[in-house]
Amino acid sequence: MTRPTPLERGSLRSRVAAAVTVAVALVWTLVPLAWMALSSVKPSEQVTAATPDLLFRPTLGNYRALFTGANDLAPYIWHSMLAAGAAAVLAVVLGAPAGYGLARTRTRGKRHLSFWIISTRMAPIAAVVLPLFLIYRRLGLLDSVPGLVLAYLTFSLPFAIWLMSAFFAQVPPALEESALVAGCSRWQAFRYVVLPLTKPGLVTTFVLCLVFSWNDYAFALVFSGPDSQTLPIAASQLVTQTGIDWGQLTAIGTIVVVPMMLVGIAVRRWLVTGLTLGAVTGE
Amino acid sequence: MTAPAAPAGAAAGPTRTAPRPRRPGRLPGFEGRMMTPGLLLLAALSIVPFLAIIVMSLARVRLLGGVGLHWVGADNWTRFFTDPDLGWAWIRTAVYFTLTVGLEMLAGVGLALAVWRLARGRNAALTLLLLPMFVAPVIVGLLGRFLTDSTFGLYTWMLRQIGYHGDIMGSKTSAFTAVVLMDVWEWTPLITLITLAGLTSIPASLREAAAIDGAGGWSMLAHIILPSISNVLLVALLIRSMDAIRYFDVIWVTTGGGPADATKTVPVRLYETAFRFFDLGYAAAIGLAMLAASIVVARAFIRVLDREGLTR
After folding, report:
1. Cα-based torsion angle of the residue sequence B184, B185, B187, B189 in order, rounded to the nearest 10 degrees
2. Which segment of A279-283, B52-56, B133-137 scores lowest on mean pLDDT?
3. Sign of the CA dihedral A53, A59, A63, A68?
4. A73-275 homologous superfamily
5. What ipTM was reported for this prediction?
6. What pTM, to 2 d.p., does this model score?
7. Cβ B157–A51 below 8 Å, yes or no?
């Protein structure tokens, strides 16, 4: 990573301007998140106080209410973990070999193949939800976790294939060739030489697939029922005609958000590569 | 029906070309076998729904008492091209799209330049700035509602201190602004992240040479820095555009398209048509049009990658 040298970092004034810009951006970014976390540990009558209240006795009452009431949150968490986890695992397990094939193949249709893969990833969710809804209804896949997993694979699988192919393309083919000379089969060269080298790629792909599926709302809204509803649905169900329990809602929000932030930050070094589908590599 | 003709034509295909010698990389080789499971599933997951949505767009879909399709020909499409409400939805979508993506590009690039100039704490600042990207869009929307609630919202309270007393989600312009800003809050960090990767890859020697030649401040930015990262910026723009067409969760849970349709973009309208009015045929026509729009952007993305030799 190259840093600007002192000469070009500019005058004191421009440096102060940069620091102020970042500070303002940090406030804009963090205030909503901090407010959500704070509200989730406030006594519920103080959550909706007309003047923002910073003095309160922290309580876990909102979280406790989520797990005790008639609408226990535990099954929602379980469905979320199951659907997002399974979709991410399947995407990586199927996507990594396919990505390797795509990176190494020299077939003529490669361009068309690439285009088809990327366009399935970019298809608007609404354009996928509609036909799947009809197909699921026919096949009885509505309100089932496997149905959600399949729905998440519609965007996770092309994403994983494309991204893994970008990571594999960074591995010099000469490495495999020397493994072949040493007597490895193609599969062994892939499994024992190439795959270990792309571990960061595999982890990044897994994490991003997990985040996108975990955060999904549009698919779950249409496909899930009592036996498969996920956390984002639980959050939106707190919005009722009679009013919203904002204490509980901010608590769910915190539960949804914190794990994804942790795994996301864990792969920060490879995030640029991941989120630009390999078009830009950073650091 | 001309269906039987198709396999015959396909069978005639290979006989015309002379048998080629097998090259090492041709499809049913190792690469092909590696790709097969993944691509087969992807084909099932993309081609079947694609054909289904085309069929749906030509039919009236009955859901009660088992799924049934009633052929209506081009009715949905005639309606698609003559529906004034939908026309407005496209215009609103275009405005929403231009504003969100435009603001995100400006703020994201500006912020990246600022972070890049930081003498210390660059990694810590970037880590914190990236956090909104991991927040589920539905939580962004609900949190936005919480912050802008007319009686106890934190932002409502702040705005009241500086003299704004309106109900943010209650009036058309402010509701539209709010949903735009929520998207900007979540996705500006993505542009910052990508731009910063471009900035750090500019060779130091290039910047030093320019600095020695007397280029400083704005002229350095305009003539050296921005041109060197123009491709990275293009990738950022395309990536963000493709996702901006895809998502609508924020609008759905904040305003649901209101007030008075002010935030009813095409995806919102599609969801409403399909799952509130259960007019799945017409929704399918809208969905296909959206698909076409996103394919245009995807094509541009591929072309940029091609130009840089990145499709390998």
Report:
1. 120
2. A279-283
3. negative
4. MetI-like (1.10.3720.10)
5. 0.91
6. 0.88
7. yes
